[in-house]
Amino acid sequence: MIWVAVIGDWFNLMFKWILFGHRPYWWVQETMIYPNQSSPCLEQFPITCETGPGSPSGHAMGSSCVWYLMVTAALSYTVRWKDKSAVTLHRLTWSFLWSIFWIIQISVCISRVFIATHFPHQVILGVFAGILVAEAFEHTRAIQTASFRMYMKTNLFLFVFALGFYLVLKLLDIDLLWSVPKAKKWCANPDWINIDTTPFAGLVRNLGALFGLGLGINSEMFVTSCKGKNSCKMSFRILCIAASLATLQLYNFVKIPTHTECLFYILSFCKSAAMPLTVVALVPYCVHSLMRTTEKKLN
Questions:
Q1: Would you say the C-alpha torsion 47, 51, 57, 60 has a positive or negative sign?
Q2: What percent of the chain has pLDDT over 90?
Q3: Dist CA 208 CA 189 (whole Å)
Q4: How far is CA 81 from CA 73, 76, 78, 89, 252, in A?
Q5: Is residue 243 within 8 Å of 179, Cβ to Cβ?
Q6: Which one of 3, 167, 182, 269 is CB 3.0 to 4.6 Å from 208, fit for a cystine?
Q7: Residue 31: Cβ-neighbour burial (10 angstroms; 0-12, 13-18, 19+)
Q8: CA atoms of 134 and 61, how far apart (whole Å)
Q9: Which range, of 44-53, 75-84, 96-105, 144-153, averages the lowest pLDDT?
Q10: Catalytic residue annotation
Q11: What is the spatial distance between Cα 109 and Cα 197, in angstroms, rounded to a whole number?
């Protein structure tokens, strides 16, 4: 799932750089459509003033990408049922899950349009682009058995391609960060402008998450805990889920300083890498060690 989310977000960045989509909260201030200073007044919120281009919507694309993957994965288990009652249950499950999927996507789209961050066509494009990415990479079996070297190569390719694309267009006098000055100019409150909404901030977060996932899955801690005898126990899984959720909440309290852009990107990469590494390897290993120590005491 992290693979699909990272690749989907990377494609979203490329699309945004190619399509040059405006956002409503600054477009209404600059368009010549409304005569005599009669442009509509759009209410802004603390989460309105994103600094990247608007098309396609990253939230809509990310949401549809991840939820499509989860729904199809869940349905892949029920499709194997053969008897008549099971087939009926599969159809009910299919209808329920896809209804939930579209309810969530519509809610995300409406919320993004409501806060004046996106136009309707941008969120619609984001939803269908996310579905296409999820469908394409869902059947890529090499992802499930990727080595750490493969993770590093993918990370390097995504970074070099994005940076190279940016630099080449900059040499052609095309500024891919054109949206940042517009956001700063037309945002109702300067405090609502956050560096973590810039295009490169998202790229760094995704690269960090993929690096941390690769490091965790290919670590000795993951092999010992998640591929050992405890991995099949329900108690092990429940403890891992609870401990992971608690740890992720603690990560949310870690605030990265934004006064220095370079330092922000480095720390953002480290934080993004630490989260999947903790969930995939560190937490299961600690739970495994705790359960093994308890079993030894009981014996």
A1: negative
A2: 59
A3: 30
A4: 15, 10, 6, 9, 41
A5: no
A6: 269
A7: exposed
A8: 10
A9: 75-84
A10: 59, 118
A11: 18
d(CA 92, CA 94): 5
Verify cis geometry, omega within 30 degrees of 0, for the bond prior to 120.
no
For the chain, percent of residues with pLDDT exceeding 70: 95
pLDDT tens profile 239-284: 889 999 999 999 888 888 888 888 999 999 999 999 999 999 999 9
The whole-number pLDDT of residue 37 equals 67
Rounded distance, CA 84 to CA 91, Å?
Answer: 11
* Whole-structure pTM value: 0.87
